[in-house]
Amino acid sequence: MTMALKSKNKLWFVNGTLPCPLDEDHDSLAWDRCNTMNMSWLTNVVDAEISQSVLWMDTALEIWHDLKE
After folding, report:
1. Dihedral-angle region of residue 7 (phi above 0 means left; psi in -120 to 50 means alpha; beta otherwise)
2. Helix (H), strand (E) counts: the chain
3. Less Cβ around it within 10 Å: N or C end of the chain?
4. GO terms for molecular function, please (predicted)?
5. Domain locations in the chain?
């Protein structure tokens, strides 16, 4: 999974190096769109039962940390 995220230049969403910008920041919409895409990727590659346990989370980083546990 790490290789897939790295190849799409999205690993920084799940390793915490790209935090969510402030709401008034013009980059927040782009960040939110990429975060949502990463959340979708992460939930679609795991078992359906596991996916259900992380659907309520707000960021790909939260999902990543939960899956690592």
Report:
1. alpha
2. 5, 0
3. C
4. transferase activity
5. 43-69
